[in-house]
Amino acid sequence: MPGPYDDLVDHLVRSSPLSANEATRVVDEVVAYFAEPVPDYVRRRHTELRHRGWHNDRIFTAIAAELPTRRVSPPALSARQLRRIVYG
Question: Helix, strand, or coil here: 15?
């Protein structure tokens, strides 16, 4: 069954030494990383940075700078909305 990122997997296989299985795992990992809910991300990053010996002031400054770079999922679009995007 085709996946939603098959074109990206194919691109990675063509442009890197990754096999199809490795490329699929990489894409799945990246998609999961960027789909992480904000509260989970903040908790995870806080723990990671604490383990590096950082203090809260520095941690929260870093997390605040990172949050705007996170992927934001768009709202679900109907077929009509998609058509309007394509055809105006």
Answer: helix
pLDDT value at residue 7: 96
Let me know: does 57 contact 75? Beta carbons within 8 Å.
no
Handedness of CA 67, 69, 71, 73 (dihedral sign): positive
* Token couple for 73: 């999922």
Structure tokens at 35: 């789909």
Return the axis-axis angle of helices 6-15 and 20-34, rounded to nearest 10°.
130
Q: Contact 17/25 with Cβ under 8 angstroms? A: no
Per-residue model confidence (pLDDT) at position 74: 60
